[in-house]
Amino acid sequence: MSTAKHWTIDVFIDEYEGSRSTRADARLHVADGLQLQGSGAARRNPVDGDIPMIGDELAVARALFDLAHHLLEAAASEVERHPATA
Questions:
Q1: What per-residue confidence (pLDDT) applies to 86?
Q2: Beta strand residue intervals within the chain, DSSP E
Q3: Mean pLDDT (whole number) for 1-14
Q4: What count of other Cβ atoms lies within 10 Å of the Cβ of residue 63?
Q5: Which pLDDT does position 61 carry in this prediction?
Q6: CA distances, 18 to each of 3, 21, 43, 54, 86 (Å)
Q7: Burial of 27 from C-beta contacts in 10 A (0-12 / 13-18 / 19+)
Q8: Separation of alpha carbons 48 and 59, rounded Å
């Protein structure tokens, strides 16, 4: 028998025109109460064109990467707390 689960990741993006930067936060919500957050940022080089979507993509990718790192740490911690029994 299989069990379907649903996890939600909310991504919040803030663009800062004055500093030509973008910040993203990725928040994972799991039904059992687990909540993790990752963050990422991107800055536009002054010589680059004004294409905000690129900054959004970079910041979000970095936030998701950071979130994945935190999720791996949480899983490793759980494995350490519940060692396999021989």
A1: 45
A2: 8-16, 21-29, 35-43
A3: 92
A4: 25
A5: 98
A6: 48, 8, 11, 17, 59
A7: middle
A8: 16
Q: Model's pTM, two decimal places?
A: 0.85
49-62: average pLDDT:
90
pLDDT class for 41, splitting at 50, 70, 90?
Answer: very high
For residue 1, give the amino acid letter.
M
Q: Are 22 and 47 in contact (CB under 8 A)?
A: no
Helices (runs of H) and strands (runs of E) counted in the chain: 1, 3
33 Ramachandran zone, left/alpha/beta (phi>0; psi -120 to 50): left
Map out the domains of the chain with their CATH numbers.
8-81 (3.30.160.240)
